[in-house]
Design goal:
Layout lengths: L1 E6 L6 H4 L2 H8 L4 E6 L12 E2 L9 E2 L1 H14 L4 E11 L2 H7 L5 E5 L7 H6 L3 E4 L9 H12 L11 H4 L17 E2 L2 E2 L9 H19 L11 H24 L1
Parallel strand pairs: 1-2, 1-6, 5-6, 5-7
Antiparallel strand pairs: 3-4, 8-9
Amino acid sequence: MNFTVLTIFPEMFSALLGVGVIKRAIERQHISVEPINIRDFAKDRHRTVDDRPYGGGCGMVMKPEPVAEAIRHARKKHPGAYTLLLTPQGRLFNQRVAQELAVCAGIILVCGRYEGIDERIREHLVDEELSIGDYVLTGGEVAAMVVIDTVSRLIPGTLGSEHSAQEDSFSTGLLEYPQYTRPRSFEEANVPEVLLSGDHGAIRQWRRQTSLIRTILKRPDLLMDQPLTTGDIEFMKKLRQDMKTIIDKHTTAS
């Protein structure tokens, strides 16, 4: 997978590319990340990429010419790449969208700055607008890093285990189960016995059930459209009955 990032601050990506999982994925050629400076496509000697908005108003707007040239350059270099404009107006990025993007031939990420990019770029030169959340950043670079990091984890070979990405929070539609490591006892808190039992079936069941409990408590909205097994339903029914019993007892006592 190739990621091409169009930005006026390519130096911002050095930290992302120089450490951890992303660095190893690049070294092993599972992914490539190429930041391209939009200023390189400006025609004037000052490398101008912004101008005052027509109609007046605060701030500056990114000019269409250098952005358009940068996009066309990236598309010529990577035919078939999917072009994304990072903007608060775009489709909300989540794990499901990341999974969709992970099968693309390549991704071009266009990072806006100032008050935004000339509307004609949005209308004619991008495949989709993407947002990482309902808030405003100073530019699209941080959003692009989020997309690169999330999608890269789904590229085969990027993670140490082929199952790691499949078990992450949201990959299954549920929040991830609790994780423990050595020591067995820490400040009088112990690792659950089931994880020490060696019974892989019991461990899988415990992990699934604790994922369900976490999701119910923290993000119940995720369960509305999530396919659930018969076992999941029976477990949740038992939880409901146990809660009803507890509530009824305390209600009667009061």
